[in-house]
Design goal:
By secondary structure, this protein is mainly alpha-helical. It contains four helices and two strands; from the N terminus they run αααββα. It has helices at about 5-15, 25-30, 35-45, 60-75; strands spanning about 50, 60. A two-stranded antiparallel sheet has the order 1-2.
């Protein structure tokens, strides 16, 4: 698995697994060494994609949240196609 894929898989595992999920469990699910999972999580946190939760785990960080807000704002500006615009057969 490439470094980028491993990092993205780690991000998925942390965010989908819950804030208090241990890194050892993430590593086991991804079939990577715990030290690698730890480095990935620490790097994602240092870059703002993850942040420490009050319980000591990790949650979406400010940089990721900013990207999500940006996507939502862009999506809100799109006009959905009208059902009357469909061509009938």
């Amino acid at each position: 698995m490439s470094s980028l894929r491993r990092t993205l898989a780690t991000l998925d595992a942390v965010l989908l697994g819950g804030a208090d999920r241990p890194i050892t469990e993430i590593a086991r699910d991804l079939a990577i060494p715990p030290a690698t999972a730890h480095r990935q999580v620490v790097t994602l946190a240092a870059e703002g994609y993850l942040a420490r939760s009050e319980g000591g785990g990790y949650v979406a960080g400010p940089r990721l949240l900013r990207l999500l807000r940006h996507l939502e704002e862009n999506r809100a500006g799109e006009v959905a196609p009208s059902s009357t615009a469909r061509t009938s057969r």
